[in-house]
Amino acid sequence: MKKLMFGMCAASALMLAACGGSEDVSETDEPIVESSLSAEESAEMEAIISARQDGFKTFGRNMRAINQSLQSGSPDAAVIAEAAATIHETSMGMETWFPEGSGPESGFETEALPAIWENPEGFAEAVMNFQTAAAELDTIAASGDMEAFQTQLRATGGTCGACHDDFRVDDD
Ligand code: HEC
After folding, report:
1. Is the residue at 112 inside a domain?
2. What is the pLDDT of residues 79-98, one digit of tens each?
3. Domain of 77: which CATH number?
4. On the chain, which terminus has fewer CB atoms closer than 10 Å, C or N?
5. Contact residues for 162 (Cβ-Cβ < 8 A; gap 6+)
């Protein structure tokens, strides 16, 4: 596919223009997979994907902070409440993190599965389940009820895992 595209690009000035107007398209240029995006659109996709991956890293970091505090023997309610608030705030807007074209077909490294766009209703539901759980986690953390918090933490973690099962590359 890649070779064929290069062949087509070299075939005529017209095709060159369609391929971005640059003659020195190199094998190492990003994106790694042929894509129909312009350089500008491609840069935008890369930014969208890396911003959402940062969002997920924020979830991971804050879930770890919560678990470490809980397992430390002397849970720090302030640390836990702050982490839960960060997870809640970061979860808002998640429905905009996966625009059409930001999957593997973008050519950029992503663990987003095509199922996200093939089953938009299922994905929207997974996003909403998580956002609802994260909002509740924040509320309970602020209340300081540690027992209720632990229950809600498990429920929230369950919504992370449920989405990963269906919509994220399984890297185990
Ligand atoms: C609605 C679906 C969904 C929910 C909810 C969700 N994730 Fe993910 N997660 C994904 C997808 C899809 C990716 C892959 C994103 C990519 O690579 O573009 C991902 C990636 C990640 C990554 C890897 C980030 C990186 O690039 O290094 C971590 C860590 C992560 N999620 C943790 C969590 C945690 C913790 C929660 C819950 C607090 C959570 N996720 C909730 C779908 C979800």
Report:
1. yes
2. 999 999 999 999 999 999 99
3. 1.20.120.10
4. C
5. 126, 129
Q: What domain count does the chain have?
A: 1
- Residue ranges making up the domain that contains 56: 33-167
Does ligand 1 lie within 6 Å of residue 159's CB atom? yes
Within 8 A by CB and 6+ apart from 67, the residues are none
Cα separation, 172 vs 170, in Å, equals 6
61 Cβ inside 6 Å of ligand 1:
no
DSSP 3-state of 10: helix
CB 74 within 8 A of CB 64: no
Is 138:85 a contact under the CB 8 Å cutoff?
yes
